[in-house]
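*** Residues and shapes ***
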Amino acid sequence: MIDYERLWELFGVGSYDELRSSHRGWIKEYLGSGAEIRRDELTRSIAMGSRSFVENVKTLLGLRAKGRRVMESTGGY
């Protein structure tokens, strides 16, 4: 899950649709560049964003998030 509101704030884009479009472009560019380095903090996480966003996702997942911890990472949780 992605906290798009936080991304919107960080990148200062004009609208949610503009952010969505830019995000799709970044993903296509990244995947197309051959950068296939796996980042565990991204691929093993159930959510990334602000602390409140991640805690809310964990709460909503209930038992499915059992054993998961909210951890601080570069630029978020």
About this structure: The chain has a mean pLDDT of 80. The chain has one domain: 4-65. The helical segments are 4-11, 16-32, 40-43, 51-61.
